[in-house]
Amino acid sequence: MKVIRCDSAEAAGTQAAEAGATLIREALAAKGRAVIALAAGRSQLSMLRHLTQLPDIDWGNVIVFPLDEYVGIGRSHAASFRRYLEERFLSVLPTPIGAFRYIAGQADDPIMEAQRVSRELRNETVDVGFLGIGENGHIAFNDPPADFDTDEPYLVVDLDERCRQQQVNEGWFGAVNDVPEEAISMSVRQILSSEHLVVTVPEARKAEAVKAALEGKVTPQVPASILQEHEQCQIFLDPDSASMLE
User: Fold this and answer.
1) What angle do CA 83, 86, 88 make, to 5 degrees?
2) Where in the chain are the domains?
3) Nearest Cα residue to 39 out of 82, 97, 78
4) CA-CA distances (angstroms) from residue 17 to 6, 29, 239?
5) Closest Cα to residue 20, out of 238, 236, 239, 242?
6) Which of 22, 46, 74, 210 could form a disulfide with 106 if both were Cys (CB 3.0 to 4.6 A apart)?
7) Alpha helices in the chain (DSSP H)
8) Which CATH class is domain 2-236?
9) Which residues pair with 129 in a beta bridge?
10) DSSP-based three-state secondary structure for 101
11) Long-range CB pairs of 208-216, under 8 A, 24+ apart, other chains included
């Protein structure tokens, strides 16, 4: 795990995008294709904006998997992660993506939907996983206490109160009661199986979680602490998110 302290939130997004682009190019050069996993949320806005503008990436040979999606939320909903990635990533790329393995949040059976997208991912190796860290220390929607053991690529998870409040504070929902109580999330072990991880974590509201994840013990109570065990993980912080680190 390598921690990169940047001069600003914008710089963190820029440097994370440049690091991720380099890794995507390397995978394309080595294999002719690349598989990436993408988070959605406020912390990823700058990174995604810069990533879509970087040159010399053959997007037609890139496969994209989302990290998560709310249960019961369709792509027309303003908070849909599928909609987020379509509007802020897929639609602004210079050339079409190879494939987008979306999660259908409004599927009749969330467990079967998790199993469906798991089958699509099971035989793939994620070359680069792009993610953030939640205020409660989650990665993807693996809230504490996270399941560190399951080998399932995707699973249905419960969202805790702090996670749901974060979604309201970021403006995706009007009230906590509007936020779904469940989501389909890439599992912790699946995230860790990525060849490389690029983690972008701006803002002071993440400082407590960053300190616990990077300087505390590895524990399911702080899901992001598991990133300490990934040798090819780069974490990009701004001065606010890094403010509590020793």
Assistant:
1) 100
2) 2-236
3) 82
4) 13, 18, 18
5) 236
6) 74
7) 9-31, 45-51, 81-88, 110-122, 161-169, 188-192, 207-215
8) alpha beta
9) 37, 197
10) coil
11) 208/135, 208/244, 209/133, 209/134, 209/135, 209/136, 209/137, 210/133, 210/237, 210/241, 210/242, 210/244, 210/245, 211/244, 211/245, 212/137, 213/133, 213/137, 214/1, 214/3, 214/245, 215/245, 215/246
pLDDT tens sequence across 32-55: 999 999 999 999 999 999 999 999
Per the CB < 8 A criterion, the answer to whether 201 and 132 are in contact is: yes
Give the pLDDT score at 17: 98
Nearest Cα neighbor of 1 from 149, 153, 133, 97 is 133
Q: Tell me which long-range contacts 77-85 makes (C-beta under 8 A, separation of at least 24).
A: 77/105, 78/172, 79/167, 79/172, 79/173, 80/105, 81/40, 81/105, 84/40, 84/41, 85/38, 85/40
pLDDT of residue 181: 97
Confidence of residue 62 (pLDDT cuts 50, 70, 90): very high
Claim: this prediction has a pTM higher than 0.85: yes
The pLDDT score that the predictor gives to residue 165 is 96
Count of residues making up the chain: 246
Cis? peptide before 145, omega within 30° of 0: yes
CA distances from residue 83 to 40, 67, 69, 102 in whole angstroms, order as listed: 10, 13, 10, 10
pLDDT category at 92 given cuts 50, 70, 90 is: very high
Q: What percent of the chain has pLDDT over 70?
A: 100
In the DSSP assignment, the letter for residue 184 is E
Amino acid at 160: D
pLDDT band at 169 (very low <50, low <70, confident <90, very high): very high
Cα–Cα dist 161/143, whole Å? 10
